[in-house]
Target: Polysaccharide biosynthesis protein
Amino acid sequence: MKKNVRKIIQVAKPYIDSGDIKTVSDVLKSGLLSLGPKYSEFEKLVTHYAKVKYAVAVSSGTAGLHLAVKALGLGLGDEVITSPFSFIASSNCLLYENVKPVFVDIEEDTFNIDPHKIESAITKRTKAILVVHIFGQTADMNPIMAVARKYNLAIIEDACESLGAKYRGKWAGSFGDVGVYAFYPNKQMTTGEGGMLVTKSKRIYQLCNSLRNQGRSENREWLNHVRLGYNYRMDEMSAALGTTQLKKLDWMIREKRKIAEYYDMKLRSISNIITPKIGIGRTHSWFVYVIRILNRNRNQIINKLSKMGIQTKPYIPTIHLQPFMKKMYGFKKNDFPIAEKISSQTLALPFYIGLNKAEITYICDKIKPLIS
Ligand SMILES: *Cc1c(COP(=O)(O)O)cnc(C)c1O
Model:
């Protein structure tokens, strides 16, 4: 029987080179697989890269966000303002601590929280703004920081999709009280699973250091637990991979930018497609390449492309319309109309280092007749 062996073009894949493989295998050979030298080496590299004072390596971006919420002392009765157009983890971290997410609609161009809609969502219970930098581009931080100062609100930055992005010359993750990066295999750089919390506060740094390590005391007495903690540690293989990945992060972002520019050139002139827009004062670190499809059924297009061997994803469903969120808080359709409209139109195209011009051309040639 003949099998169809046509290649499938994936939507994402990590870039791993021989240096990455060597550093991980060196850790394996050393026998020191956790709490060795690599996680602090990786932390130091991240502080240098993102120009932040302290970094705490953790087991995932979600774990980092959870610790951020804990470290700010948020809990039952508190509200935090955030974006409904994000990956579920940016709100789940609030629910873990019984904090209520209060959503604010997004900017149509950048898909980030609309700073001008924040103030009217503030109540007596509002304690913080959890800013998500979506798809590799920061939110409009100046007006957000201004409203936070005016109402004395803390800022958590979910920079899990935006390591390496800048806003007016400053790195994503370095604005707020706490920032969090993530290193899942589809992100700008990977450690397998992994995340990094960054902060300028020594108190938050020390607290998160303890919380990720079973609540142990700062002096690391092994069986002295001074608070309720977690095992959110990053293992040494992951941290080692982080060190070599971070060293080539700028190069990887440049490679992704070239792919984005090639897509832009091919798709820009097609009616019913809107290519990614970059806000004033911002640089894009290209987590995903997401276009908007107008006047066509986006999900049908996904299915048709899939039959042609092209994997694409509906990026990203809104958080407030997830079944458990609707049940818990009574959210309904049309609560955040811009986020919902964008969410119904957006399509993530195959986007990874190694995707070549012939493949991009093939993808665009297949998309075009489905849309125009
Ligand atoms: C990936 C991601 C996270 C969580 O990262 P994990 O490492 O998968 O836990 C959080 N927020 C956003 C916006 C993300 O894209």
Notes: The first helix runs from residue 18 to 30. The two ends are 38 Å apart (CA to CA). The domain at 18-247 is CATH 3.40.640.10 (Aspartate Aminotransferase; domain 2).
